[in-house]
Amino acid sequence: MGRNKLLLEVAGETLVRRAVRISREAGLNPVVVVTGHARERIEREIADLECTPVFNADHRAGIQTSAASGVAGVAGACDAAVVMLADMPFVTAPMLRTLVERYTTEAPPLVVSRYGEVNAPPMLYDRVLFPEVTRMRAGCGREVVRRHYDQAVQVDWPAARLRDLDRPEDYAAVAEEFARAGAGTAEEAGADPDERN
């Protein structure tokens, strides 16, 4: 991207603030924000929000180390943890609530988000998997899912919600889509036609 993705704005809100807001709206508590590059700027951006920043000193080694740091930050306080990525702006609070509801009613060790044939965040891990998650290093995140997939609950989402922001052109397209959806209906951005009212 060439700049810190967490500070990019969609619908007048930085991605990191949006992720915290959605997590809080979904009822997740505590909310942990894993920081790495530009730690101080991110912490200032979320200083007024109900969340706990956790610094991943190993952030250059890959995204799995951030998931490991985040789960380690709640391991003693939670029965399960939802791992989400702030650069997936089409993830919504109802999606997060659905993961928690499926966990509560079915008690699996893992709740997996599935977009067509692709498994991707957000994902929910039961505390029995915390030791595996907190040991994750670059490239091994899929292995945890693969090892427990036969016991997992899969939740299907429209493929359009999978998009993330890796390149400037991704951001430009997403910002335009949110702008078209309008400030009051930003949750509709990225929705399949069947999801729209």
Question: What are the defining features of this structure?
Answer:
197 residues; alpha/beta; Spore Coat Polysaccharide Biosynthesis Protein SpsA, Chain A; 4-stranded mixed sheet; two-stranded antiparallel sheet; globular; disordered C terminus
Molecular structure report:
The protein is 36% helix and 18% strand. It is built from seven helices and eight strands; from the N terminus they run ββαβαβαβαββααβα. It is an alpha/beta fold and 197 residues long. The protein has one domain (5-180): Alpha-Beta Complex (Spore Coat Polysaccharide Biosynthesis Protein SpsA, Chain A), CATH 3.90.550. It starts with 8 loop residues before the first strand and ends in a 16-residue tail after the last helix. The radius of gyration is 16 Å and the shape is globular.
What's the helix and strand layout?
Elements: E1 9-10, E2 13-14, H1 15-25, E3 32-35, H2 39-45, E4 52-55, H3 63-74, E5 80-83, H4 93-106, E6 110-115, E7 118-126, H5 130-134, H6 141-148, E8 153-157, H7 168-181
Parallel strand pairs: 3-4, 6-8
Antiparallel strand pairs: 1-2, 5-7, 6-7
Integer tally of domains: 1
Mean pLDDT score, rounded?
Answer: 87
Count of alpha and pi helical runs? 7
- Outline the biggest β-sheet: 4 strands, mixed
Pattern of helices and strands: EEHEHEHEHEEHHEH
Radius of gyration: 16 Å
Give a brief rundown of this model.
The chain is of the alpha/beta class and 197 residues long. Helices cover 36% and strands 18% of the residues.
